[in-house]
Amino acid sequence: MSGTFEQARDFFTQGLAHYEAGRYAQAERSFAASAALLPGRVSTLTNLGAARLKLGQPQEAADVLEEVLAQEPDNVEALGHRATALAELGHLPQALACVERVLALAPALGHAWSLRGRLLRDMGRTDEAVAAFDEAIARGADPELNRYHRAALTGRDVPATAPRHYVQSLFDTYAEGFDEHLVRVLHYQAPQVLAQGLRRMGRGFATALDLGCGTGLCGPLVRPLAATLHGVDLSAAMVERSTAAGAYDEVVQSDIASYLQDTAQRYDLVLAADVFIYVGALEAVFAGVARVMEPGGVFCFSVEWAAQGEAPVLRDSLRYAHSRAYIENLAAQAGFEVDAVAEHAIRENQRVPIPGLYFWLTRR
Q1: Contact 89, 59 (CB under 8 A)
Q2: CA-to-CA distance for 350 and 333, rounded, in angstroms?
Q3: What is the per-residue pLDDT across 310-361, written as a single tens digit (0 to 9) for each?
Q4: Rounded Cα–Cα distance for residues 130 and 157 (Å)
Q5: Can you list the residues of the chain whose pLDDT is less than 70?
Q6: What's the pLDDT at 311?
Q7: Fold of the domain built from segment(s) 2-156
Protein backbone atom coordinates (compact mmCIF):
# COMPACT_ATOMS: atom_id res chain seq x y z
CA MET A 1 0.00 0.00 0.00
CA SER A 2 2.81 2.42 0.83
CA GLY A 3 4.30 1.83 -2.62
CA THR A 4 0.97 2.64 -4.25
CA PHE A 5 0.61 5.80 -2.19
CA GLU A 6 4.10 6.97 -3.06
CA GLN A 7 3.53 6.31 -6.76
CA ALA A 8 0.20 8.19 -6.67
CA ARG A 9 1.89 11.05 -4.83
CA ASP A 10 4.63 11.20 -7.46
CA PHE A 11 2.05 11.35 -10.26
CA PHE A 12 0.20 14.10 -8.39
CA THR A 13 3.41 16.12 -7.90
CA GLN A 14 4.27 15.69 -11.58
CA GLY A 15 0.77 16.87 -12.49
CA LEU A 16 1.19 20.04 -10.45
CA ALA A 17 4.51 20.80 -12.14
CA HIS A 18 3.05 20.22 -15.61
CA TYR A 19 0.00 22.37 -14.83
CA GLU A 20 2.07 25.29 -13.51
CA ALA A 21 4.21 25.10 -16.68
CA GLY A 22 1.14 25.16 -18.92
CA ARG A 23 1.56 21.55 -20.07
CA TYR A 24 -2.09 20.72 -19.51
CA ALA A 25 -2.25 17.47 -21.47
CA GLN A 26 0.64 16.03 -19.44
CA ALA A 27 -0.94 17.38 -16.24
CA GLU A 28 -4.23 15.68 -17.06
CA ARG A 29 -2.50 12.34 -17.65
CA SER A 30 -0.54 12.60 -14.41
CA PHE A 31 -3.59 13.50 -12.30
CA ALA A 32 -5.61 10.72 -13.96
CA ALA A 33 -2.85 8.21 -13.20
CA SER A 34 -2.76 9.34 -9.58
CA ALA A 35 -6.55 9.07 -9.31
CA ALA A 36 -6.48 5.56 -10.76
CA LEU A 37 -4.05 4.45 -8.05
CA LEU A 38 -5.84 6.23 -5.20
CA PRO A 39 -9.48 6.85 -6.24
CA GLY A 40 -11.60 9.53 -4.65
CA ARG A 41 -8.88 11.87 -3.37
CA VAL A 42 -10.35 15.37 -3.41
CA SER A 43 -7.14 17.25 -4.21
CA THR A 44 -6.35 14.96 -7.14
CA LEU A 45 -9.85 15.11 -8.61
CA THR A 46 -10.05 18.89 -8.23
CA ASN A 47 -6.80 19.35 -10.12
CA LEU A 48 -7.87 16.80 -12.72
CA GLY A 49 -11.00 18.84 -13.32
CA ALA A 50 -8.98 22.05 -13.63
CA ALA A 51 -6.65 20.43 -16.19
CA ARG A 52 -9.58 19.18 -18.24
CA LEU A 53 -11.03 22.68 -18.28
CA LYS A 54 -7.75 23.98 -19.70
CA LEU A 55 -7.91 21.31 -22.38
CA GLY A 56 -11.36 22.39 -23.48
CA GLN A 57 -13.13 19.37 -21.98
CA PRO A 58 -15.89 21.01 -19.89
CA GLN A 59 -18.13 17.95 -19.64
CA GLU A 60 -15.31 15.71 -18.43
CA ALA A 61 -14.27 18.44 -16.00
CA ALA A 62 -17.82 18.87 -14.68
CA ASP A 63 -18.17 15.13 -14.13
CA VAL A 64 -15.02 14.76 -12.06
CA LEU A 65 -15.76 17.93 -10.07
CA GLU A 66 -19.18 16.55 -9.25
CA GLU A 67 -17.37 13.65 -7.57
CA VAL A 68 -15.48 16.15 -5.42
CA LEU A 69 -18.64 18.01 -4.42
CA ALA A 70 -20.36 14.77 -3.49
CA GLN A 71 -17.70 14.42 -0.81
CA GLU A 72 -17.22 18.11 0.03
CA PRO A 73 -20.27 20.19 -0.99
CA ASP A 74 -18.61 23.42 0.20
CA ASN A 75 -15.27 22.96 -1.57
CA VAL A 76 -14.81 26.47 -2.93
CA GLU A 77 -12.17 25.56 -5.51
CA ALA A 78 -14.24 22.71 -6.95
CA LEU A 79 -17.39 24.87 -6.98
CA GLY A 80 -15.55 27.57 -8.93
CA HIS A 81 -14.14 25.15 -11.51
CA ARG A 82 -17.53 23.46 -11.88
CA ALA A 83 -19.18 26.84 -12.44
CA THR A 84 -16.72 27.52 -15.26
CA ALA A 85 -17.34 24.09 -16.78
CA LEU A 86 -21.11 24.51 -16.64
CA ALA A 87 -20.83 27.97 -18.19
CA GLU A 88 -18.82 26.58 -21.09
CA LEU A 89 -21.48 23.91 -21.57
CA GLY A 90 -24.14 26.60 -21.73
CA HIS A 91 -25.80 25.66 -18.44
CA LEU A 92 -25.89 29.24 -17.19
CA PRO A 93 -28.40 29.02 -14.31
CA GLN A 94 -26.58 26.02 -12.83
CA ALA A 95 -23.23 27.79 -13.26
CA LEU A 96 -24.60 30.89 -11.54
CA ALA A 97 -25.87 28.78 -8.64
CA CYS A 98 -22.33 27.41 -8.16
CA VAL A 99 -20.87 30.92 -8.19
CA GLU A 100 -23.46 32.16 -5.72
CA ARG A 101 -22.46 29.31 -3.39
CA VAL A 102 -18.78 30.26 -3.78
CA LEU A 103 -19.51 33.86 -2.88
CA ALA A 104 -21.63 32.85 0.09
CA LEU A 105 -18.64 30.89 1.38
CA ALA A 106 -15.87 33.28 0.27
CA PRO A 107 -17.26 36.75 -0.60
CA ALA A 108 -13.78 38.25 -1.01
CA LEU A 109 -12.90 36.16 -4.09
CA GLY A 110 -12.58 38.72 -6.85
CA HIS A 111 -12.35 36.19 -9.67
CA ALA A 112 -15.68 34.68 -8.57
CA TRP A 113 -17.32 38.11 -8.83
CA SER A 114 -15.85 38.41 -12.33
CA LEU A 115 -17.29 35.04 -13.35
CA ARG A 116 -20.63 36.10 -11.85
CA GLY A 117 -20.52 39.22 -14.05
CA ARG A 118 -19.87 37.20 -17.19
CA LEU A 119 -22.70 34.80 -16.41
CA LEU A 120 -25.16 37.61 -15.70
CA ARG A 121 -24.12 39.35 -18.92
CA ASP A 122 -24.77 36.19 -20.92
CA MET A 123 -28.14 35.85 -19.20
CA GLY A 124 -29.11 39.38 -20.25
CA ARG A 125 -29.00 40.81 -16.72
CA THR A 126 -26.85 43.78 -17.69
CA ASP A 127 -27.16 46.03 -14.65
CA GLU A 128 -26.35 43.17 -12.29
CA ALA A 129 -23.41 42.19 -14.48
CA VAL A 130 -21.94 45.71 -14.37
CA ALA A 131 -22.28 45.74 -10.57
CA ALA A 132 -20.53 42.36 -10.38
CA PHE A 133 -17.61 43.63 -12.48
CA ASP A 134 -17.33 46.68 -10.22
CA GLU A 135 -17.29 44.36 -7.20
CA ALA A 136 -14.65 42.18 -8.84
CA ILE A 137 -12.37 45.20 -9.27
CA ALA A 138 -12.99 46.27 -5.68
CA ARG A 139 -12.11 42.75 -4.51
CA GLY A 140 -8.74 42.77 -6.31
CA ALA A 141 -9.58 40.93 -9.53
CA ASP A 142 -7.77 41.91 -12.74
CA PRO A 143 -8.81 45.56 -13.20
CA GLU A 144 -7.90 45.77 -16.90
CA LEU A 145 -9.96 42.71 -17.79
CA ASN A 146 -12.98 43.63 -15.68
CA ARG A 147 -13.03 47.20 -16.97
CA TYR A 148 -12.97 45.76 -20.49
CA HIS A 149 -15.99 43.59 -19.69
CA ARG A 150 -17.77 46.53 -18.08
CA ALA A 151 -17.02 48.87 -20.99
CA ALA A 152 -18.52 46.36 -23.44
CA LEU A 153 -21.81 46.60 -21.54
CA THR A 154 -21.91 50.32 -20.79
CA GLY A 155 -20.10 51.91 -23.75
CA ARG A 156 -18.18 54.05 -21.25
CA ASP A 157 -14.40 54.23 -20.75
CA VAL A 158 -13.81 51.95 -23.73
CA PRO A 159 -10.16 50.83 -23.89
CA ALA A 160 -8.25 51.32 -27.12
CA THR A 161 -7.61 47.59 -27.42
CA ALA A 162 -8.50 44.29 -25.77
CA PRO A 163 -6.24 43.20 -22.88
CA ARG A 164 -3.33 41.30 -24.39
CA HIS A 165 -3.42 38.49 -21.83
CA TYR A 166 -7.17 38.04 -22.42
CA VAL A 167 -6.67 37.54 -26.17
CA GLN A 168 -3.68 35.26 -25.68
CA SER A 169 -5.48 33.08 -23.14
CA LEU A 170 -8.66 33.00 -25.24
CA PHE A 171 -6.92 31.63 -28.30
CA ASP A 172 -4.52 29.35 -26.45
CA THR A 173 -7.63 27.68 -25.03
CA TYR A 174 -9.57 27.89 -28.29
CA ALA A 175 -6.83 26.38 -30.51
CA GLU A 176 -8.08 22.81 -30.15
CA GLY A 177 -11.20 22.49 -32.29
CA PHE A 178 -10.89 26.08 -33.55
CA ASP A 179 -11.23 25.30 -37.26
CA GLU A 180 -14.23 23.03 -36.91
CA HIS A 181 -16.13 25.44 -34.68
CA LEU A 182 -15.32 28.53 -36.72
CA VAL A 183 -16.03 27.04 -40.13
CA ARG A 184 -18.77 24.49 -39.50
CA VAL A 185 -20.65 26.15 -36.65
CA LEU A 186 -20.06 29.87 -37.23
CA HIS A 187 -19.78 29.64 -41.05
CA TYR A 188 -16.68 31.82 -41.03
CA GLN A 189 -16.03 33.29 -44.48
CA ALA A 190 -13.40 36.01 -44.15
CA PRO A 191 -10.41 34.10 -45.63
CA GLN A 192 -12.38 33.09 -48.71
CA VAL A 193 -13.71 36.60 -49.34
CA LEU A 194 -10.27 38.18 -48.99
CA ALA A 195 -8.63 35.56 -51.21
CA GLN A 196 -11.28 35.96 -53.90
CA GLY A 197 -10.60 39.70 -53.98
CA LEU A 198 -6.87 39.08 -54.31
CA ARG A 199 -7.40 36.64 -57.16
CA ARG A 200 -9.51 39.21 -58.98
CA MET A 201 -6.48 41.52 -58.92
CA GLY A 202 -4.71 39.00 -61.13
CA ARG A 203 -1.26 39.45 -59.63
CA GLY A 204 1.27 37.51 -57.61
CA PHE A 205 3.24 38.56 -54.55
CA ALA A 206 6.86 38.05 -53.57
CA THR A 207 6.42 38.04 -49.79
CA ALA A 208 3.11 37.95 -47.91
CA LEU A 209 2.28 38.35 -44.22
CA ASP A 210 -0.81 36.92 -42.50
CA LEU A 211 -1.53 39.02 -39.40
CA GLY A 212 -3.19 37.04 -36.60
CA CYS A 213 -2.85 33.89 -38.67
CA GLY A 214 -4.48 31.65 -36.05
CA THR A 215 -4.49 28.00 -37.09
CA GLY A 216 -3.64 28.97 -40.65
CA LEU A 217 -7.01 29.05 -42.42
CA CYS A 218 -5.75 31.75 -44.81
CA GLY A 219 -2.54 29.86 -45.59
CA PRO A 220 -3.73 27.43 -48.28
CA LEU A 221 -5.77 30.17 -49.98
CA VAL A 222 -2.91 32.70 -50.14
CA ARG A 223 -0.05 30.26 -50.71
CA PRO A 224 -0.67 29.97 -54.50
CA LEU A 225 -0.43 33.77 -54.79
CA ALA A 226 2.77 34.30 -52.79
CA ALA A 227 6.32 33.04 -53.29
CA THR A 228 6.96 33.43 -49.54
CA LEU A 229 4.30 33.42 -46.82
CA HIS A 230 4.85 34.44 -43.19
CA GLY A 231 2.41 34.39 -40.28
CA VAL A 232 2.31 36.11 -36.91
CA ASP A 233 0.00 35.41 -33.96
CA LEU A 234 -0.10 36.26 -30.27
CA SER A 235 -1.15 32.76 -29.18
CA ALA A 236 1.56 30.12 -28.79
CA ALA A 237 -0.98 27.36 -29.37
CA MET A 238 -2.14 28.97 -32.60
CA VAL A 239 1.46 29.41 -33.79
CA GLU A 240 2.07 25.72 -33.16
CA ARG A 241 -0.97 24.69 -35.17
CA SER A 242 -0.35 27.06 -38.10
CA THR A 243 3.28 25.94 -38.29
CA ALA A 244 2.21 22.30 -38.36
CA ALA A 245 -0.32 23.04 -41.12
CA GLY A 246 2.62 23.59 -43.49
CA ALA A 247 1.43 26.48 -45.67
CA TYR A 248 3.72 29.08 -44.08
CA ASP A 249 7.45 29.48 -44.55
CA GLU A 250 7.69 31.05 -41.07
CA VAL A 251 5.31 31.75 -38.19
CA VAL A 252 6.26 34.09 -35.33
CA GLN A 253 4.61 34.48 -31.94
CA SER A 254 4.13 38.20 -31.34
CA ASP A 255 1.66 41.01 -30.90
CA ILE A 256 0.96 42.18 -34.44
CA ALA A 257 1.66 45.87 -33.82
CA SER A 258 4.98 45.02 -32.15
CA TYR A 259 5.97 42.72 -35.01
CA LEU A 260 5.18 45.38 -37.62
CA GLN A 261 7.19 47.92 -35.67
CA ASP A 262 10.26 45.74 -35.15
CA THR A 263 10.68 43.42 -38.14
CA ALA A 264 13.30 44.07 -40.80
CA GLN A 265 11.28 42.06 -43.35
CA ARG A 266 9.43 43.84 -46.16
CA TYR A 267 6.18 42.65 -47.75
CA ASP A 268 4.09 43.33 -50.82
CA LEU A 269 0.98 41.68 -49.36
CA VAL A 270 -0.36 41.95 -45.80
CA LEU A 271 -3.72 40.46 -44.87
CA ALA A 272 -5.75 40.22 -41.66
CA ALA A 273 -8.87 38.05 -41.56
CA ASP A 274 -11.22 38.75 -38.63
CA VAL A 275 -8.31 39.97 -36.48
CA PHE A 276 -9.13 43.61 -35.79
CA ILE A 277 -12.16 42.65 -33.68
CA TYR A 278 -9.64 42.21 -30.82
CA VAL A 279 -7.34 45.11 -31.71
CA GLY A 280 -9.71 48.05 -31.50
CA ALA A 281 -7.75 51.21 -32.32
CA LEU A 282 -5.90 50.51 -35.57
CA GLU A 283 -3.59 53.51 -35.85
CA ALA A 284 -0.48 51.57 -34.78
CA VAL A 285 -1.32 48.67 -37.09
CA PHE A 286 -1.79 50.91 -40.14
CA ALA A 287 1.46 52.74 -39.36
CA GLY A 288 3.23 49.39 -38.99
CA VAL A 289 1.87 48.00 -42.26
CA ALA A 290 2.90 51.19 -44.05
CA ARG A 291 6.38 50.77 -42.54
CA VAL A 292 6.89 47.20 -43.81
CA MET A 293 5.08 47.45 -47.16
CA GLU A 294 6.69 47.96 -50.52
CA PRO A 295 5.20 50.66 -52.78
CA GLY A 296 2.35 49.15 -54.74
CA GLY A 297 1.81 46.46 -52.13
CA VAL A 298 -1.64 45.33 -51.04
CA PHE A 299 -3.16 45.47 -47.55
CA CYS A 300 -6.46 43.59 -47.25
CA PHE A 301 -8.54 42.81 -44.18
CA SER A 302 -11.99 42.44 -42.69
CA VAL A 303 -13.72 44.30 -39.87
CA GLU A 304 -17.08 43.95 -38.20
CA TRP A 305 -19.32 46.70 -39.57
CA ALA A 306 -20.18 49.71 -37.41
CA ALA A 307 -22.25 52.77 -38.23
CA GLN A 308 -20.35 55.90 -39.12
CA GLY A 309 -18.13 57.06 -36.29
CA GLU A 310 -14.68 58.33 -35.44
CA ALA A 311 -13.68 55.52 -33.08
CA PRO A 312 -14.02 51.74 -32.86
CA VAL A 313 -17.10 50.45 -31.05
CA LEU A 314 -16.73 47.78 -28.35
CA ARG A 315 -19.79 45.52 -28.45
CA ASP A 316 -21.17 43.34 -25.69
CA SER A 317 -19.71 40.37 -27.60
CA LEU A 318 -16.30 41.76 -26.45
CA ARG A 319 -15.42 42.44 -30.08
CA TYR A 320 -14.65 45.78 -31.70
CA ALA A 321 -16.49 47.03 -34.79
CA HIS A 322 -15.20 49.70 -37.18
CA SER A 323 -16.90 52.13 -39.51
CA ARG A 324 -16.04 52.65 -43.16
CA ALA A 325 -15.21 56.31 -42.48
CA TYR A 326 -12.75 55.37 -39.72
CA ILE A 327 -10.93 52.89 -41.98
CA GLU A 328 -10.82 55.24 -44.97
CA ASN A 329 -9.43 58.08 -42.84
CA LEU A 330 -6.70 55.80 -41.48
CA ALA A 331 -5.88 54.57 -44.98
CA ALA A 332 -5.41 58.11 -46.26
CA GLN A 333 -3.25 59.10 -43.29
CA ALA A 334 -1.02 56.03 -43.69
CA GLY A 335 -0.50 56.41 -47.43
CA PHE A 336 -2.94 53.84 -48.82
CA GLU A 337 -5.49 54.08 -51.59
CA VAL A 338 -8.76 52.18 -51.32
CA ASP A 339 -9.00 49.81 -54.28
CA ALA A 340 -12.15 47.98 -53.27
CA VAL A 341 -14.64 47.66 -50.43
CA ALA A 342 -17.17 44.84 -50.03
CA GLU A 343 -20.00 44.26 -47.61
CA HIS A 344 -20.23 40.61 -46.59
CA ALA A 345 -20.93 38.56 -43.49
CA ILE A 346 -17.89 37.67 -41.37
CA ARG A 347 -19.39 34.75 -39.48
CA GLU A 348 -22.61 33.88 -37.69
CA ASN A 349 -23.67 34.27 -34.07
CA GLN A 350 -26.54 32.00 -33.08
CA ARG A 351 -27.29 31.62 -36.81
CA VAL A 352 -27.48 35.39 -37.33
CA PRO A 353 -24.91 36.72 -39.86
CA ILE A 354 -22.49 39.32 -38.46
CA PRO A 355 -22.18 42.13 -41.04
CA GLY A 356 -18.65 42.88 -42.14
CA LEU A 357 -16.64 45.23 -44.31
CA TYR A 358 -13.76 43.97 -46.46
CA PHE A 359 -11.06 46.31 -47.72
CA TRP A 360 -8.33 45.96 -50.35
CA LEU A 361 -5.84 48.85 -50.11
CA THR A 362 -2.75 49.69 -52.18
CA ARG A 363 0.36 51.39 -50.78
CA ARG A 364 1.15 54.60 -52.64
Answers
A1: yes
A2: 37
A3: 789 999 999 999 999 999 999 999 999 999 999 999 988 878 899 999 999 9
A4: 13
A5: 1-2, 174-181, 183-186
A6: 87
A7: 1.25.40
Within 106-163, residue ranges assigned H as helices are: 110-122, 126-138, 143-154
- Tally Cβ neighbours within 10 Å of residue 130: 19
**C-alpha triplet 328, 330, 333: angle, nearest 5°:** 110
CB atoms within 10 A of CB 216: 26
For residues 177 and 174, give the distance between their C-alpha atoms in angstroms, rounded to a whole number.
Answer: 7
Check residue 65 and report its DSSP letter: H
User: What pLDDT is stored for residue 91 in this prediction?
Assistant: 97
Q: Which CATH number fits domain 170-363: 3.40.50.10860, 3.40.50.150, 2.30.40.10, 3.50.50.60?
A: 3.40.50.150
Q: Where in the chain is the domain with CATH 1.25.40.10?
A: 2-156
CA nearest neighbour of 82 among 48, 128, 118: 48
Tell whether pTM > 0.85.
Answer: yes
Residues of the chain with CATH 3.40.50.150: 170-363
What are the E-state strand segments in the chain?
205-211, 226-233, 250-253, 267-272, 293-304, 313-314, 320-321, 336-349, 352-363
End-to-end CA distance of the chain: 76
Q: How many CB atoms lie within 10 A of CB 31?
A: 29
pLDDT attached to residue 177:
62
SS3 23: coil
